[in-house]
């Protein structure tokens, strides 16, 4: 479980996150939604430690991530997997080298064990015949799947997905959504997804947080979202649904 | 961002490289890879340019020696000293600033804008140490080897142009090359080369690593890397000559 308490983040004296609190539960897909520029990407960067917060707490199973020293932070990071918006695969490495990269850096597995794990992860994302291909040789949807395979290579406790469906056709988007849901449930991972794809929100939203102008306006689930009674959220939903 | 902020960030960047290095086996594997990319990848252009510069230096020196009083062997002595002291290390490193520097800056810049550096950081890899330190170490190890090639090719080019063009006989050329040779010139040349290699790789890495934006900014980083590396080379060339060469 990840709990964030009263997070503040500013750039050039302008707050982009203001008193944000939320709970992201284990084994569930937790969605953060909001319009472009609402602060959800900054929130994700703060959660994974790419950006420091000004105030507040980020608790990874009660470990205060923001205030840990470098080595302790590194330990927590080993439990994090992240799927980036553009997949962020390493251009110079093949698909199997990309997936095996975290294993090579951090595990004590032998080369054959690493290879077995890579093949297992690629099988999980239904990508078994692309081991030797390079990122420039595969489609956007395949890149996202390789990104997921790399993210789960070290058996993460926490999975972050930044706009997993951006740039994908509706059919591939659903495949990616289903994959994330399956992996989350099967491995009991705390998954946090940034999205403004309403289909994803309705399909995956075990927990949904709505951010607007850096403020957390509403938290609930996909059965409650249409009747939230929150005027900002209603405006957001209308813009996407109609 | 003013120049003092940039220098401060550069110093912090350099400190960050050394503070938490990755596993030695990973570091060494990457260093070997970078040595191949920098060394083998630049061998052809270094050889071609040095051959040409050596040939031109010989012909121009011969052209200026119109007096019959001066021995013709002085042509190859001038060629030797100017090649070892200045032409091989400085010209070659200016060329490498363009080739290797732009390459490093655009590679890291592209990684930065496509979130590949963020991906390393999220995994808990010290991205600057993992990506940049091997490039600097590889540059400092392999560029001096390229300078040895540049020195040899410069003198071969000078011999070829001088003898073929009739400016100097083979015997005079050999005599001039061996005459009053001071070993310190080679030591000085390597001190310069190591300094230049460090400047090229670190300045280019710094500009590439901190690229933000998109394709346009990646291009700008490449340009900045080349310009600042060249300025750094020329400035340090003057400082080192002032400090180490006795009158």
Features:
heterodimer; A: 242 residues; alpha/beta; four-stranded antiparallel β-sheet; 10 strands; 38% helix; B: 247 residues; mainly alpha; 8 helices; 85% helix
Characterize the structure shown.
Chain A is an alpha/beta fold and 242 residues long. In chain A, 38% of the residues lie in helices and 25% in strands. In chain A, a hairpin with a 2-residue loop joins strand 9 and strand 10 (215-220). In chain A, helix 4 packs across helix 5 and helix 5 (140-152) runs parallel beside helix 6. Chain A is globular. Chain B has one domain. The radius of gyration of chain B is 21 Å and the shape is elongated. Chain B has 247 residues and is mainly alpha-helical. In chain B, helix 1 (3-19) crosses helix 5, helix 3 packs antiparallel against helix 8 and helix 7 packs antiparallel against helix 8. Chain B has helices spanning 3-19, 24-64, 74-113, 116-123, 127-164, 170-178, 184-209, 215-244. Chain B is built from eight helices and no strands. The interface between A and B is medium-sized, with 24 and 16 residues.
Strand order of the largest sheet of chain A: 6-7-8-3-9-10
Greatest chain-chain contact: A-B, 24 and 16 residues
Quaternary organisation: heterodimer
Helical percentage of chain A? 25-40%
Poorly predicted runs of 5 or more residues of chain B:
none
Overall spatial form of chain B: elongated
Number of helices of chain A: 8
Using DSSP, what is the number of strands of chain B? Answer: 0
Report the count of strand segments of chain A. Answer: 10
> How many DSSP helices of chain B?
8
Strand content of chain B: under 5%
How far apart the termini of chain B lie comes to: 40 Å
H/E element order of chain B = HHHHHHHH
Q: Poorly predicted ranges of chain A (pLDDT <50, ≥5 residues)?
A: none
For the largest beta-sheet of chain B, the strand count, sense and barrel status come to: none
Number of domains of chain B: 1
Strand content of chain A: 25-35%
Looking at the structure, what is the overall shape of chain A?
A: globular
Helical residue percent band of chain B: over 70%
Q: For the residues shown, what is the average pLDDT of chain B?
A: 93
Structural class of chain A: alpha/beta
């Amino acid at each position: 479980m990840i709990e964030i308490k009263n997070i503040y983040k500013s750039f050039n004296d302008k707050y982009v996150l203001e008193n944000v609190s939320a709970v992201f539960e284990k084994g569930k897909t937790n969605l953060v939604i909001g319009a472009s520029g609402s602060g959800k990407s900054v929130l994700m960067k703060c959660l994974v430690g790419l950006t420091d917060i000004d105030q507040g707490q980020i608790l990874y199973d009660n470990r205060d991530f923001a205030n840990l020293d470098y080595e302790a932070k590194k330990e927590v990071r080993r439990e994090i997997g992240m799927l980036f918006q553009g997949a962020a695969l390493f251009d110079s490495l093949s698909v199997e080298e990309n997936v095996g990269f975290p294993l090579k850096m951090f595990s004590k597995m032998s080369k054959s064990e690493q290879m077995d794990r890579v093949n297992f992860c690629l099988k999980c994302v239904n990508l078994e015949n692309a081991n030797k291909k390079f990122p420039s040789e595969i489609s956007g949807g395949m890149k996202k799947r390789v990104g997921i395979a790399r993210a789960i290579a070290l058996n993460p406790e926490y999975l972050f997905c930044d706009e997993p469906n951006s740039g994908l056709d509706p059919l591939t988007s659903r495949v990616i959504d289903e994959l994330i849901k399956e992996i989350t449930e099967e491995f009991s991972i705390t998954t946090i997804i940034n999205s403004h794809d309403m289909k994803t929100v309705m399909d995956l939203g075990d927990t949904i947080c709505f951010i607007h102008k850096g403020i957390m306006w509403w938290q609930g689930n996909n059965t409650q979202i249409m009747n939230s009674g929150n005027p900002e959220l209603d405006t957001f939903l209308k813009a996407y649904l109609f | 961002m003013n120049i003092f902020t940039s220098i401060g960030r550069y110093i912090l960047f350099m400190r960050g490289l050394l503070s938490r290095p990755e596993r030695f086996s990973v570091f060494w594997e990457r260093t070997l890879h970078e040595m191949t990319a920098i060394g083998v990848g630049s061998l052809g252009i270094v050889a071609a340019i040095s051959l040409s510069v050596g040939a031109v230096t010989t012909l121009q020196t011969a052209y200026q020696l119109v007096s019959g009083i001066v021995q013709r062997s002085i042509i190859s002595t001038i060629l030797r000293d100017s090649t070892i002291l200045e032409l091989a290390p400085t010209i070659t490193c200016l060329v490498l600033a363009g080739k290797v520097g732009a390459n490093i800056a655009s590679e890291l810049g592209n990684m930065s804008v496509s979130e590949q550096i963020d991906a390393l950081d999220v995994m808990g890899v010290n991205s600057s140490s993992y990506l940049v330190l091997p490039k600097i170490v590889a540059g400092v190890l392999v560029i001096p080897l390229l300078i040895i090639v540049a020195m040899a090719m410069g003198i071969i080019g000078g011999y070829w142009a001088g003898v073929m063009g009739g400016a100097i006989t083979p015997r005079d050329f050999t005599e001039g090359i061996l005459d009053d040779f001071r070993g310190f010139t080679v030591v000085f040349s390597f001190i310069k080369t190591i300094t230049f290699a460090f400047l090229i790789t670190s300045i280019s890495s710094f500009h590439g690593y901190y690229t933000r934006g998109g394709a346009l900014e990646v291009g700008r980083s490449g340009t900045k890397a080349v310009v600042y590396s060249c300025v750094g080379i020329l400035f340090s060339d003057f400082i080192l000559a002032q400090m180490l060469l006795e009158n």
